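Input.
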Amino acid sequence: MQKLLVIASTNTNKVREFQTLFSKDKDLKILGLCDLVDHPEIVDETSDTYAGNAFLKADYWFQRLQVPILSDDSGLEVESLNGWPGVISARIAATDKDCREALITRLIQNGHFGLSGANGAKARFVCVLCLRASGLTRYFEGILPGTIRNI
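Output.
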């Protein structure tokens, strides 16, 4: 019998990525929230940490579905902006385009781009996963360092 893992997301591309990652494990079936719930509620990300927000989502859906849940929270941290936007990355604007514009504006204001010819800004992408199951809560963190450049 297959074990079930639910990805706490309505993003079908994210669910598909996890299905691909675990495709060799034939004993594991991965579903997204939309596979189980008609109109999944959006869990408010009220924590000031990635782990806290990932836990809020994982615990919310575990309490409702009583199956193992994997959730995530992630963000971009720009070193010279004291880690901004960080944990609020997904909420600095309504659209991805507006998020990019807000980030670029902040970088220009801090002398990273524009007429100054600055090289760019050190940044890192942080992602925390939370696995929540009966009697179990585990966290996994990945960090990808890099530089935002003016191209």
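The chain has one domain: 3-148.
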